[in-house]
Amino acid sequence: MSFVVGLTGGIGSGKSAASAWFESQNISVVDADVIAREVVQQGQPALVQIHQAFGDWVLLENGELNRTALREYIFQFPEARKTLESITHPAIRHSIILQLEQTQSAYALLVSPLLFETNQHQLTQRTLLIDATEALQIERASQRDGQNIEQIKKIIRAQLPRVKKQQLADDIVLNDGHLDHLYQHLQQLHASYLVLAKKNQSNED
Ligand code: ADP
After folding, report:
1. Full domain range(s) for residue 88
2. Whose CA is nearest to atom 7 of ligand 1?
């Protein structure tokens, strides 16, 4: 796959809604969140490394990763987050590259909440930010997950600030209206990505 659009946005901004729309236009989607869960499944080398780095408490009795315990631990100890990420990020990146290589659509979409934070944008030719105010993010994420507001705020604080993402993204869609409004913007961007992907293709030929 030669032309990849990276799609990002904070929690509750509308990434999943946007990526579902691109899929409906037959664009292949690679989801970094899904991959992040896959690389720590039982039998995966990253889980063995996490076990070695943190100890037995990090596994449940059935051998699966104790996500809740690990999440709480890394929120408490920033150094532990770095250790964890030094294990997971390379594994995630490797898997993203493999999955992108297998995509067949006119261009591919890489959806990642931490596109810029983890330098995954380097795997893309263009970046799109789904943008929303913090108030909207909290409202949508709490309605969707039933998570408490403090927890959502914690996640927002762990992500790159909204203004930084606005500075880094090539394209920005402010998702502050109806879903139809979002889809209209995406339609325009999709048309421009098809053109860019074609240009990219003819430059490579
Ligand atoms: P993200 O993947 O960025 O965390 P989602 O796409 O899951 O965010 O959106 C969060 C929630 O808000 C979902 O339940 C989604 O259906 C809803 N949502 C997203 N955009 C809109 C919108 N423009 N209008 C109403 N609801 C929306």
Report:
1. 34-104
2. 16
